[in-house]
Amino acid sequence: MPLTPDQQAEIDAARGESQQTLRATVPGMEAHLYKAHEVLDHGFVRVIDYMGDDSAITQAARVSYGKGTKAVQNDEGLIRYLMRHWHSTPFEMCEIKLHVKLPVFVARQWIRHRTANVNEYSARYSILDREFYIPQAEHLAAQSTVNNQGRGAVLQGEEAARVLDMLRGDSMRAYDHYEAMLSQDGQDGLARELARMNLPANVYTQWYWKVDLHNLFHFLRLRADSHAQYEIRVYADAICEVVKDWVPAAYAAFEDYRMGGAQFSARGMDALRKMLAGETVTQESSGMSKGEWREFEASLKG
Amino acid sequence: MPLTPDQQAEIDAARGESQQTLRATVPGMEAHLYKAHEVLDHGFVRVIDYMGDDSAITQAARVSYGKGTKAVQNDEGLIRYLMRHWHSTPFEMCEIKLHVKLPVFVARQWIRHRTANVNEYSARYSILDREFYIPQAEHLAAQSTVNNQGRGAVLQGEEAARVLDMLRGDSMRAYDHYEAMLSQDGQDGLARELARMNLPANVYTQWYWKVDLHNLFHFLRLRADSHAQYEIRVYADAICEVVKDWVPAAYAAFEDYRMGGAQFSARGMDALRKMLAGETVTQESSGMSKGEWREFEASLKG
Amino acid sequence: MPLTPDQQAEIDAARGESQQTLRATVPGMEAHLYKAHEVLDHGFVRVIDYMGDDSAITQAARVSYGKGTKAVQNDEGLIRYLMRHWHSTPFEMCEIKLHVKLPVFVARQWIRHRTANVNEYSARYSILDREFYIPQAEHLAAQSTVNNQGRGAVLQGEEAARVLDMLRGDSMRAYDHYEAMLSQDGQDGLARELARMNLPANVYTQWYWKVDLHNLFHFLRLRADSHAQYEIRVYADAICEVVKDWVPAAYAAFEDYRMGGAQFSARGMDALRKMLAGETVTQESSGMSKGEWREFEASLKG
Amino acid sequence: MPLTPDQQAEIDAARGESQQTLRATVPGMEAHLYKAHEVLDHGFVRVIDYMGDDSAITQAARVSYGKGTKAVQNDEGLIRYLMRHWHSTPFEMCEIKLHVKLPVFVARQWIRHRTANVNEYSARYSILDREFYIPQAEHLAAQSTVNNQGRGAVLQGEEAARVLDMLRGDSMRAYDHYEAMLSQDGQDGLARELARMNLPANVYTQWYWKVDLHNLFHFLRLRADSHAQYEIRVYADAICEVVKDWVPAAYAAFEDYRMGGAQFSARGMDALRKMLAGETVTQESSGMSKGEWREFEASLKG
Which residues bind dUMP (chains A, B, C, D) (predicted)? Predict the structure, then answer.
């Protein structure tokens, strides 16, 4: 359960206070505001604030005085053009702020995206809750035998049970000892900034994360991708659902040009042109390495 | 006159459409939205959008679920603490988007602040207007005789008149030739991306500029400072008036700790401690250079 | 002539002083160091310093203790893999510092690349030289009739002559007046920070520019592209020649995957798969806009 | 022991290969190159590469053709001026690349400094070593009773022993289970990207970290400060020793203006001026909060 009743009450209170504004406003995003979208066993994504909408992108691209053209079709065409030609600055004119609760090992991947603003819950200052990510049985995957950083088949039977026992047992023991070290009951109590080092990477943390739409798309392209680790991909997927409601035209262009598209090297284009001309091309004749050829063929199959 | 009737009509239309929102809203900023605050002879600053308020700063610092504490005093104290200790990330949680019209030589200084989002009016794509910055008589300053990058006394009489004549005359001739080169009347017409190079640095450009509050404060500290060039300082001053209405507590802390404060080197602190103990300190005995000593004395006078 | 004899002497002196170092060193880059590669009529690009080589990329990707594998082939394969999968951080481990002299309107495009370090010659502090970019006849292009931000045919005869006359005449007059305003001969002399605003955008400036290899590749992809304005493309081309000597394996991968490659949208991939299966696809049946279809066909032709 | 014999051999090999270069070279830094400076129980800091020296700072500030002035005193004066007036861009012209081995909880603080390049050892791809930070007895501090994010007295006797037992025991058990989950001996073996989540935050990781001198000074100001957590401060201290040998003039200015200096708010300056005029000022009459007054008094004592 990601939220306590007190936390839910604070969220409900915030959702009760509507204000008048002259700013660009998106009804679909107002419906998301403050609510917790649950992710994994204790995590969530909450929209705290947003700036701009689809029109804000074209308004900035045109440096216009008002809202830009009335014709929605023109705006969509321009947005597609900007996305196709990597004109990224107009997308930077939209901004979103999220409150995210997530395991530390996910946070460590996430923070690598540097062009964003972050305020994380401080374990030097405060005490972390007893909340750990324990995978569901169907996500307990074996090491991939073909990909050094991927997953293979799902673990079965005894091995799965033993793994879950270890994860659960070690998490609970680590937290018991964390509490025991912090306790000032008849002792001084270890500094919080030291005690926290006993907690494993599946403990939950939380942060406020603010990012512009261009950099968010970059994050989503990498993290909503099938090669991303499952535990961060579910966060990216949850954010995709939000962005779809926030800037539908920009999101559709993103899906078409980034998520659903493909890119080819000069060697790949050579091969492609020969194939379209009816020639047979093999890995050897293409000049590509085996790995590259495998990816090339996968792209063409879709 | 910075705005045409058409532009004013677009602005009025945008100000007429109020929406309901659950987001943090600041009445003082709503009053600024879209309006043009005039700067220099043809320039302006307009607020296009904003995200967050004073509470958003403390909410992020506490990573809280709702709006944070009800006690305004606690929020102010926390904001002052964050500012004093250079905890900059909570201030990054507020964002502002401005539409600015400004001379190119001012734009060239402004753009040096890299942590911001910019969309500038494109002179490759569009034709610039016949608008040039011509200083008012009281800002026509001589080169400073003590500061290599500063101004001295105001120019007088014939010299002032001659300078203004040159600036006005060259601007108009440059624009006449710009138009003549672009003209397709009985000729091909030079490419816009080439013709623009004839325009001097006092021609006006415009852009959308979006920045978070931490980086905006950094900009204001340097550009609203008495050492900044007058022509960018007036923009910074206009923005200060806006920020004061947006995040009053954060702005008050900024004024106290950044704009009104002073900093001393280790040598300066040595001197200060001796002076407080009743000793006489001179430039020679302080170990400071002449320039540093002059600044030290100026700080103490205020 | 981009360099005075004094400047050339300073460069020669710097090239005369060889030192011993344990750092990664690239003989091909040592040959470039400090020399001015001429660009346009008065501009240049000079390599001032560099950090890293091809091995530094793979060393960082492997977080290794020494230089990484001895097998050059393994390093090349890894570099190609990193480039293909947008693993950008290992490329950030190489850094280059350039001294560039360039017209102001080129500098204004260039500075939009924010992830770099810049120190520009200050026209508040110093006096600019009488050096202006005047295009050669074959680069005096008309506005494109199909592309709002492109060039068409080269101007001919009288029109070309008149354009050159205006550019030359206005540049010289602007500089004469710049000098006249600055002059302290019998008058106060206008502040340099004001006088400079009379100078047109084809005046030369110069700066030190430092950037990592990943961000440099991003710059080169956009600016060495055929859609970039000619006057910035020649700088990008000159830098490409340098990078080729500095990190040959990384540059080859960049050429293959970025410069010579192509990318397709989801709609484009649909069309491609149908074409490979022998179906006929038209703009209408593809779902692409006319502009997108034109670019799609151009990619396939190569 | 932070290095294995193999690793030491790789380092020795790299130190054996000296090359000729025309680049700026600093003998003091050459002596540091590749060597491991030990930090904590298993950590280290190694200089992998560097770009620039003190002269590179002034050369960029002057945008000069050669090495700048011959007079070392002039360079020092200019460096002090740049530091005093927050002219940060010339310091960005120097760059350093480090290889650092550090506990994960230290890495999590460190990575918050976003303007840097990082390649971390991947626990998705590789298996981490059995190395955990276990504090020495004298660093086993109690929670501070006055500062929510600080340390108080050192733990004694039984409490200290119990804390060390827990840290050591949990680390070893977590690693035993990590190995057991990964093992493919008679089972599939859990994916590395999942198994790693069992490891606590005191496990060691390592990365290549590259940063410019301006941003490094910012890091050092915050992390070599007495308020920083001890475990990151020792890394900052080790880096300070390196920087001192690399850019002695810049480091001296940094020490004087940043580390040894103090800053005062407008209220602080008011109080200071009154005190210099012989008036008595108290916390109440100063308008400062208790916390601010305490820091003000501490600054004056030094």
Answer: 109-112, 120-124, 196, 223
ipTM, interface predicted TM-score of the complex: 0.95
Least confidently predicted of A143-157, B5-19, B280-294, C14-28: A143-157
- Which residues of A define the annotated binding site for FAD? 89, 112-114, 120, 212-214, 218
**Which chain D residues contact residue A141 at CB under 8 A?**
190-191, 194
Q: Which amino acid is at A69?
A: T
> For D66, left (φ over 0), alpha (ψ -120 to 50), or beta?
beta
Contacts of C252 (CB under 8 A, 6+ apart): C76
Element (H, E) at C96: strand C95-103
Nearest to B22 among A33, A61, A64 (CB): A33
Label residue C1 by pLDDT band (50, 70, 90): low
Task: Please state, in angstroms and as integers, the Cα–Cα distance from residue C174 to each residue in B135, B173, C202, following that order.
Answer: 17, 10, 11
From the list C56, D118, D201, the residue with the least C-alpha distance to A113 is D118
d(CA D164, CA A190): 11
pLDDT at residue D69 greater than cutoff 60: no
For C143, the 3-state DSSP assignment is strand
Contact across the interface for D302 and B260, Cβ inside 8 Å: no
Q: What is the CATH number of domain C5-133+202-259?
A: 3.30.1360.170
Task: Round to whole Å and give the CA distance between D283 and D281.
Answer: 7
Tens digits of per-residue pLDDT, D45-61? 999 999 999 999 999 99
The encoded tokens of residue C75 equal: 């390093």
Q: Are A191 and D141 in contact (CB under 8 A)?
A: yes
Which of C 117-146 lie inside 8 A of D, CB atoms?
117-121
* The pLDDT value given to residue C302: 78
Give me the mean pLDDT over the C133-139 stretch: 96
Region A46-59 average pLDDT:
97
pLDDT interval class at B69 (50, 70, 90): low
C21, pLDDT greater than 90: yes
Touching subunits of D (3+ CB pairs, under 8 Å) are A, B, C
| C-alpha span between C26 and C49 (Å, rounded) | 11
Q: Which residue has the tokens 């230290």?
A: D106
Residue B152 in contact with partner chain C when CB distance is under 8 A? yes
Please give the mean pLDDT across all residues of chain A: 94
Domain boundaries, chain A: 5-133+202-259, 135-200, 266-301
Alpha helices by DSSP H, listed for chain B, are 5-16, 27-30, 54-62, 72-84, 104-110, 157-182, 192-195, 213-223, 230-246, 248-254, 266-276, 283-286, 290-301
Q: Which residues of B are annotated as a binding site for FAD?
A: 89, 112-114, 120, 212-214, 218
Give the rounded percent of residues in chain D with a pLDDT score beyond 70: 97
Q: Looking at residues C213-219, what average pLDDT do you find?
A: 98
Assigned CATH class of D5-133+203-259: alpha beta
Q: Please provide residue A277's backbone torsions phi and psi, each rounded to the nearest 5 degrees.
A: -85, 5
Asked if C188 is an interface residue toward chain B (Cβ–Cβ < 8 A), one would say yes
- The whole-number pLDDT of residue B74 equals 87
Positions of D annotated as catalytic residues are 223
Is residue A223 left, alpha or beta, with left meaning phi > 0 and alpha meaning psi from -120 to 50? alpha
pLDDT value for D203? 98
Q: Environment class of residue B298 by beta-carbon count within 10 Å: exposed (0-12), middle (13-18) or buried (19+)?
A: exposed
Q: Which amino acid is at A26?
A: V
3-class DSSP state for residue B231?
A: helix
Read off the pLDDT band of A78 (50, 70, 90). very high
Angle at B32 between CA B30 and CA B35, to 5 degrees: 125
Question: Edge-to-edge strand order for the sheet containing C117-120?
Answer: C36-39, C43-51, C95-103, C204-212, C117-120
Rounded Cα distance between B137 and B163, Å, is: 10
